[in-house]
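Submission sheet (multi-component)
Chains listed below:
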Amino acid sequence: MRKLFVPVLALTALMFAYSPIAIANAPYESTMRLVQKIFYYHFPAWMALTVSVTVCTVASALYLFKGSARADRIAAAAAEVTVIFGLFGLVSGSLWGRKAWGVWWQWDARLTMAFLLELIFFGYILVRNYGGPGAEKLAAAMGIFGGATAPFVYKSVDWWRTVHPKTSVMTTLGQTSPEMWYVVWFCTFTILLFMGLLLAARVRLEEQRAALDQLYLAAED
Amino acid sequence: MNVLKVALLILRKDFAIELKSYEIVSTTLFFSVACVAIFSFAFVKEGQAPVDVSAGILWIAIAFSGTLALGRTFERERYGETLKALLLAPAPRPAIYLGKLLGIVTLLFATEVVVVPMVAFLFDAPFFTKPLLLVALLGLGTIGYAAVGTLFAAMLVRARTRDVMLPILLYPITIPVIIAGVRGTSALLATPVDEPVAMLWIGMLSFFDVVFVTISLWTFEPLMTE
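Outcome: structure written.
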């Protein structure tokens, strides 16, 4: 794993550097013109969040039911990554909304659920940091409830009438404008790699912390 | 012993303790009344209640008193150092959770019996045009809220910062339930009553209840094991 880190980092940096060029070369969307370009980072951010939420939920469940300390460290790392991509997704969405809908924010189903998901993972970090002994289990429960909320966020646009586009927008995009579709997936792949790197770095930090704690305990004995 | 029997036994135990002092019932009721009174002072101007706020106020009062009641219920177990004994009992853990949940839900129903007429009275809201739908909304909403609340309150018994952590953990997860409750109740208060919309939110609440109760029953055992 650690051997792969630097090559993947280099690849991600290259792809990330190329992504603005790809985005600039992609065709303009007919009604929103330049503003639509936000999509190329907005969608990938939420895809990265989807992956990190899934990782956090699965790891939390593994920690709760199997007591694996490694899973707990991965869940903690994934929760922080989730908050970061959630913030990015909310801010980029808000900026886009200002231009596309004329308002910064609207409490429709998708935006509300996305905001709640962000709050849940914020809560995860808070309880982990300030919950005192045994907070890992509380955090794990939070992670599982977060995982249960995530599908609601995804499907909310199909279940309620919202200002946000439906989930089918990506399938239609593949048919109507393959050039745009390729660029979106290129950016998504880049951001996913970036998310993987963040996650790996954060898990490593947690591992080092755990190792340090072990050494302190050993020194005290 | 089967699960339901154990759950009812725990409910009976909590009731027996509560009936000796009425501590939790009286404090929760007083808090909810004070809460609604504050809203009334804040919003009712010159005898005119603002339109369309009563549903929100009702649910905020329920949610806040619920948080208070949840904290108190488990505080009692902690104070008497009886939680460990309860968990050591040769009974399935989900049954213990269920018993506690039933207790909280009953307590919140008692609160609602006071708060709903009070909001109706102070804010001039026609809550009782469709009593069955109102009962369904309040019942399902309370169960959904209490399901998550009981789980987190039980876990927080051991934590030092439980008073702060309970709302922090509980509110983000249960806001969908509160939203559904508020929207459904607003539909009932509309003239004419918007029954299809109320039914939609009742369906939504049932769905949330199933999800929350399932997750809670599933995770209670590992969460309460040290």
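Remark: Residues 93-123 of chain B form the longest helix (31 residues).
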